[in-house]
Amino acid sequence: MGCDQHRYTDQVSEAHKHLLSYSDLSRRIRAHALCMTHKANASHIGSCLSIADILAVLYGGVLQVDPARPGWPDRDRFILSKGHGAAAIYAVLAERGFFPKEWLDTYCQNGSKLAGHITYGVPGVDVSTGSLGHGLPIGCGMALAAKRGGRPYRIFVLLSDGECDEGSTWEAVLFSSHHLLDNLIAIVDYNKLQAFGAVGEVMNLEPLEDKWRAFGWSVRQINGHHYEQISDSLTSVPFEPGKPSCIIAHTVKGKGVSFMENQFHWHYKSPNSDQLAQALEELGIDR
Ligand SMILES: Cc1ncc(C[n+]2csc(CCOP(=O)(O)OP(=O)(O)O)c2C)c(N)n1
Ligand SMILES: [Mg+2]
Q: How far apart are CA 208 and CA 57, in angstroms?
């Protein structure tokens, strides 16, 4: 079986002329990411599935961005600090019309614009990442620039729980509360897994909420697969005036595909043809 992902997306598109619902959009993100990693024999499908629902809400209703003007100066900025989740962000950008869906077929191929880690220059992408621990520090600079320039836009940074092991992340946490950056929002994809094992065994983060609070942030914990909780939290920022906001999103690595959920080896493995077929079937995609 090939990986003709546009067959199903075109069918769904015709049925939905209006803005996609979050569940439709997250299903498409998951399906694209599965097809892309399968075709490219690429890693990080578990990481992509973990953030699909958060991306669906961000790009389906929260971020003030314009696909026709990706460089609009007052757009909200979004930084995917866990840059290895590139397939998921490319999928949602294509679904929102930042570039043609056909580009997704070229993911990780020679000459493609779409590299395996999120890359500046792709329409809708503001920052290249991949070396973990850089997204929040960059977000701090952007947030400070917005404040000093009197601009209204917000900076959303999606980081992994593994990145909470990085000293640079905690320097940024400290910096942003000191500078009263209430235009900065960190979303922690707390899927409890890193590349080779459980967060609790590699480097325990608990009590994680207390740590962010102690550094001067306002914090909420949510279920990162519950659209209402995601949307409620993202539309309530800043949680407190004068403080940056942190959303600790409890998620499942591999979410949505039964045999990938909570299995750390799906950090690096890519689905073969049979596994892709089973995964798409579980998502309810008729191919
Ligand atoms: C500074 C740095 N060290 C190591 C790596 C290699 N690496 C890629 S992903 C990853 C860990 C993945 O776990 P997590 O950060 O929790 O992200 P998840 O896939 O669970 O979203 C590591 C160590 C890297 N990209 N950057
Ligand atoms: Mg993780």
A: 24
Question: According to the model, what pLDDT value does residue 7 have?
Answer: 42
Half-sphere exposure of 237 (CA within 13 A, CB side): 30
Sheet containing 77-80: order of strands:
77-80, 155-160, 184-190, 245-250, 218-223
160 beta partners: 189
User: If you measure from the C-alpha of residue 132 to the centroid of ligand 1, how many angstroms do you get, rounded to a whole number?
Assistant: 6
The proportion of the chain whose per-residue pLDDT surpasses 90, expressed as a percent, equals 92
> pTM for the complete prediction?
0.94
Question: What pLDDT digit, counting tens, does each position of 23-41 carry?
Answer: 999 999 999 999 999 999 9
- When computed from its CA atoms, the radius of gyration of the chain, rounded to whole angstroms, is 18
Ligand 1 cavity residues, CB under 6 Å: 47, 50, 82, 84, 130-133, 160-163, 189, 191, 193-195, 253, 267
Amino acid letter, 234: L
Q: Which of 45, 61, 30, 88 is nearest to 227 (CA)?
A: 61
Residue 87 DSSP symbol: H
Q: Are 20 and 28 in contact (CB under 8 A)?
A: yes
User: Measuring CA to CA, how many Å separate 204 from each of 63, 93, 162, 170, 201?
Assistant: 32, 33, 10, 15, 6
Ligand 1 atom having least distance to the Cα of 166: 1
Indicate which atom in ligand 1 lies nearest the CA of residue 130: 25
Listed in order, strand segments (DSSP E) in the chain are: 77-80, 155-160, 184-190, 218-223, 245-250
C-alpha 78/C-alpha 156 separation (Å) is 5
Expressed in angstroms, the distance from the first to the final Cα of the chain is 10
Dihedral, 39, 108, 142, 64 alpha carbons, nearest 10: -40
Residues constituting the chain: 287
The atom number, within ligand 1, closest to the CA of 44 reads 19
* CA–CA separation, 218 and 69 (whole Å): 32
